[in-house]
Amino acid sequence: MILPIVAYGDPVLKKVAKDIPADYPKLDELLQNMYETMYNAFGVGLAAPQIGLDIRLFIVDTTPFAEDESLSEAEQAALTGFKKTFINPKITEETGEEWVFNEGCLSIPDVREDVFRKPTITITYYDETFKEHTETYSGLIARVIQHEYDHIEGVLFTDKLSSLKKRLIKGKLTNISKGKINVDYRMRFPSQKKKR
């Protein structure tokens, strides 16, 4: 089932999410719905807060990035089919010299900005069967994971921008929070919640 994606301005996007137990109700169904929602919106990652749940869970599938012809064959191969579920993740290390990449977010449509992040991360997490993993990633895969991880920490990519950039996009962000935007996927705006 395709779920509505929570728009900028909803308080759930600013909350630090909570760990979930292995017997979290209907986890398989939730994951299936999240993947369906992400693919429907042409995203490469989706975190639980983006569908209104303040739990430490996100999914990634970097396959669409593999179509970027400016990447090396090795980078394209690494991105192709990289599909993972991260439950109760903890980034334990971020290393290297920060690099810039133009990021966007399904909760903040039509806003793209350059964000600096460290290139290599080590993360400990549970997969969908609650098996624990500790893995190290670099490049675009690391960046997608960092972006989604920020969501469960209550951080948006716009929080990482300079105060000047924030001022320049303030009007756009206000319009998104009010639902004054056209998107081709389901969204839930903060203004809609109050009317119920």
Number of helices: 5
Write down how many β-strands occur, each being a DSSP E stretch of 2 or more residues.
9
CATH topology call:
Peptide Deformylase
Average pLDDT works out at: 95
CATH class: Alpha Beta
Q: Would you identify the CATH architecture? A: Alpha-Beta Complex
Q: Uncertain segments of ≥5 residues (pLDDT<50)?
A: none
N-to-C order of helices and strands: EHEEHEEEEEHHEH
**Which class best fits the helix and strand makeup?**
alpha+beta
Side by side, the strands of the main sheet go: 2-3-4-7-8
Helix content: 25-40%
How many structurally independent domains? 1
Strand composition percent:
25-35%
How far apart, in Å, are the first and last alpha carbons? Answer: 22 Å
The named CATH superfamily: Peptide deformylase
**Biggest β-sheet: count, sense, barrel?**
5 strands, antiparallel
Explain how this protein is built:
It contains five helices and nine strands, in the order βαββαβββββααβα. It is an alpha+beta fold and 196 residues long. The protein has a single domain, classed as Alpha-Beta Complex (Peptide Deformylase). It has a five-stranded antiparallel sheet with strand order 2-3-4-7-8, sandwiched between helices. Strands 1-9 form a two-stranded parallel ribbon. The chain has a two-stranded antiparallel sheet with strand order 5-6. A hairpin with a 2-residue loop joins strand 5 and strand 6. The chain starts with a strand and ends with a helix. The mean pLDDT is 95.
